[in-house]
User: Fold these one by one.
Assistant:
Number 1:
Amino acid sequence: MNRTLTRPIADDLIRPLFQTSVWFYAIVLAAGTVVACGLAAWLYQMWNGIGVAGIRWPVFWGFYLVNFVFWIGISHAGTLISAILRLVDAGWRRPVTRCAEVITVFALMIGAMFPIIHLGRPWLAFWLFPYPSEREIWPNFRSPLAWDFFAINTYLTGSVLFLFLPMIPDFALVRDRSTGWRRRVYGALALGWRGTTRQWNRLESAMQIMAIAILPVAVSVHTIVSFDFSMANVPMWHSTIFGPYFVAGAIFSGIAALIIAMAVLRKTLRLENYLLPLHFENLGKLLLLMSILWAYFVFAERLTVWYGNEPHEMAVFWATQRGEFAPLYWTMVVCNFVIPFVLLSNVYTRTITGCVVASFGVVIGMWLERFLIIVPSLAHKQLPYSWGTYGPRPVEITIMAATFAAMVLLYALFSKFVPIISIWELKAGQLSTSTHPSAHASQASHDSHSLRAAAPEVRP
Amino acid sequence: MNAIYGLYSDPTTAQQALDNLRSAGLSDAEITVISSEPFEHFEFGHRDAKTAMPWIAAAAGLFGLVTTYYLLGLSQMSWPLKTSGMPIAPLWTNLIIIFEMTMLSAILATVITLLVTAGLPSRGGKLYDPEVSDGYILVGVENPSDAGSLERALAIDGARVKKT
């Protein structure tokens, strides 16, 4: 019974590692070209100086910091969602977790690059690191930028380990089914995993502890990113709501990114029998919840500013509501609230297509939100003589486009070399429902039964 | 290495083989069970489940907390920076870094404990059969003293018994 149920799952999920479609090469080539353009643009900036970017007095934080906050937000897709679903033992999480955790690791790596790009002279980045140099340069631990260093590195380390540990048994599985260089590489990555009951129990315990530990770290990361703004006495930044507002926004954009990634994987890797409409529906409900929460936070923030009627804050308020930034602001509202609410609150439109359309809206809307938090406030500081404006230059736009391409490239390469769905977790979920059908709630059962029905049909 | 083991396609039969080995007088420490997924709903899936990992993680977290508290204070007092009327070593802001280092210590300790207690990385040479990755469950004994009786205990319900 065990083998008949689980073998087709392993066959299906390992297949993309051994078969390469033309699409894979096309994606790698296209994304790689854009990434190369981005690297060239960065080199151009290093050679000519940061002046080639559009950032200048008084708006010293432009696209680079917008993208930094955006990508750190996207990173909340994975580890946070995966950890929550793992802790509540949601059966439907099993095909979703690894897709999500990968987004976290790559988004964090991309996001953490932006402060270095923003430095202008990246070879001096080590000046920011805490080490006792002979020049007595020492980081100010009271600076939110120093907090970023610790928070992002902790989250990145934790997320990489949280992703890697459950991959070990899958590496062992690929090792046993491959030959030649693949066997050697996957053998090294599997660390000599055999699958003894002791190893399984230790792995499960470690994942539980990691899930508990990573949750507050994930919340702290975006709270600390929000402190980069709220600790400064800049209009509409100095707000106590920024911590939870940023965390909610990060989870919101993270879920949207996850839905898009899952939809692409489902089509390109032919995972229709594993990434089911049910998964999209559940994530769509979460996205709807976060959309409503986001609207609540925006309303609370805007109402407080409007009621307070501080002149310098009202300048930023009106610039975004009906001034130069109004088109971007209302586009953001439509993308982040109207589209998701209309599409996801209706059971007939909460389909895979509906979820993907809403998610694209959210990703665009959340990028605009990051832009609207940073630029209008810096362009309208307390004293009118310090007002200014900001427009991105081609270097910044190219580097930004390259980071999106880098995400696609990294994701494509990862799904080519590692099973993008955790095979052993999926098998364990299927077995636990088949041996103890009452152990899982209706959704998990439905999920598993769908898999069981579908898996033999797709056996190669 | 000298071993005898059976390969089972079903967890119920694997459990039965394990029970037979116990009846033959073997202790749990002498029996190896290997599978390509965990079996939470079977007794053999809970062997060796007891672990001090949560306590080790908590202790490491505490260690990280205390160490970071003192290291931060020490470095801030050694290179005093005056910033907008704040104390040289304010607890409010230091708490953020202390928190991150506490959690990082707990996470790293968890991973190290996993690797050490699960015997990873390992260079092989232990009882294993690649057919486990094909969905079979391996139940066996390394360096058996009485291979004949163990073979009878393992040979149930069409299982394949192998000797190395």
Number 2:
Amino acid sequence: MAKSIMIVDDSATMRKIIMKTVRAAELDIGETSEAGNGAEALEKLKASAVDIMLCDINMPEMTGPELVKKVRGLPSCAKTKIIMVSTETAQGIVDDVLKSGANGYITKPFTPEKFKEKLTPFLN
Amino acid sequence: MMVDEVCLNEALLAGATEVFETMIFMDIRESMQQGQEASCESSSQDGAKQHLKGNTFLGPITFTGDMEGCLGICCSVSCARAIAQNMLGMAQTDELGEAEIADAIGEVANMVMGSFKSRVQETVGNLNVSIPTVVKGRSLDASVGENASRTVINVNIADEYAAELSLLYRQEKKREN
């Protein structure tokens, strides 16, 4: 069954690239949505939860980890898989984000093959 | 440990190469030719101040921590447009607004910074990276103030465009108790 996906990144360019990469990876993705910041993402998730959220870390006003904590506080999003997509590679940051409730991590830059490898476990 | 400029140069170029190959699909090489027309010039005056000429996009991204400074990407408007179009899988004839081009350059700066950081963090230490800002104009200057060092790499993109990668930095000295 196709999964619904939300892309959260303050860069419109990166949101388009991620969308393009997800399509190129030929993953079983259904409905897609985007948000340019954490507040917008939360509002959309409160209206309709998604199966997978791809989320940047460094965003203004509300960072990715802050958004993750708030999403984990929404009962409707209990089954939402959260995958961080970021340039941050420091193990401490990666560990903190996973402890805050994220399920996976993809580093930028990325290829469709890398995306497929990282996302496939969450599509089954 | 004080990091040397060669190490930073190599990390900067390798980081940019990784980003351009993976996400932009454009070849990037260090320019070796003397007298090649460039979009940007660097000045050794005023410590680490670089003076940029022509109508260019400058995408600086600052960092703090065990080393503080600014990583920058500077290129012509046409180069920036080509980069953005390639990242988005668009044709050269497709229209792209300045805001979209600036956003793309900001993301390039962001990814090059991340790739650079991953290569130097064992040597340099912790770096906290900001969100990039991009400006467009003539005679743009980037500076991190006095007593800073700089490394500049002139590059050639897709055998067509000249651009500049720069790193202005000041390494924090650890205080002895």
